[in-house]
Amino acid sequence: MSTLYIVATPIGNMDDITLRAMKTLRHVPLIAAEDTRRTAKLLNAYDIKTPLTSYYEHNKLSKLDFILEQLSKGDVALVSDAGMPGISDPGHELIVAALEKGIKVEAIPGPSALLSALAVSGLPTDRFSFIGFLPRRSKERRAQLKSVAARTDTLVFFEAPHRVIETLADMLHSLGDRKVAVCRELTKVYEEVFRGTVGEAIAYFVEPRGEFVLVVAGAPPVIETPSEEEALKLLAAFKKQGLAAREAVAEASAVTGMSRKWLYQAWLEQSNSIPSL
User: What is the model's pTM?
Assistant: First the structure.
């Protein structure tokens, strides 16, 4: 059975291509590339002679039948301009169509602007949301930003250089002046990572150039204050356990964040006697 290989390619530095990626690109009878000229440079650098066919945003539907036909004869590798195909790049429709035909789909992992930016950002990486490219118009962009404003996980965006300042301004409006890492030209000669606040980034990038990844801090977690009724139930439970007033009030204050004075008064009202603190 033929296989559609989803091959990650360098996001800047050519040396980042993996041995497995090179082996795959040499092995397959055909490579479907987002930009055949750009991929040809990569192939020439490693003396890979595999034929190329174009597969990009504006022909990704009309080219499906041709690539599926090639897959009926042998393996095909799919590559984008940089990084992993299908991640904010053409590829999704072909992958779905191949799976529907029962064709095996296999990833050849490698360079990723998303993960590289997240790793060097200095922001939390245990949970993150990849938003990708935001809408081009400010109104729609602000609406999408507001839709993710309450998320507490780190947010990651791709952006073109000519929209970076406008996007940062909309982030300041919709998300507030959060911490941000603005990553430019990752793995390339002029790689740069600016770490600061959104407002500071706007002042810093006067004439943005290159490809950008914006890593933005999530919203601070909302700490819900327990109700007075819940605090009273907690005190009653401590009393039932036999805790002394001082210990019960201290524990309840640590759990609820409520003042010891209020909690002690509530303890007294629940008691027939008045313990001393």
Answer: 0.77
* CA 154/CA 126 separation, integer angstroms: 9
Q: What are the tokens at 135? A: 């809408």
Beta bridge partners of 198: none
Residue type, 254: A
Nearest-angstrom CA–CA distance, 29 and 49:
10
Burial class (CB in 10 A: 0-12, 13-18, 19+), 102: exposed
Task: Evaluate if residue 143 carries a pLDDT over 70.
Answer: yes
Q: Are 149 and 170 in contact (CB under 8 A)?
A: no
The tens digit of pLDDT for each residue in 212-247 reads 999 999 998 766 677 888 888 888 888 888 888 888
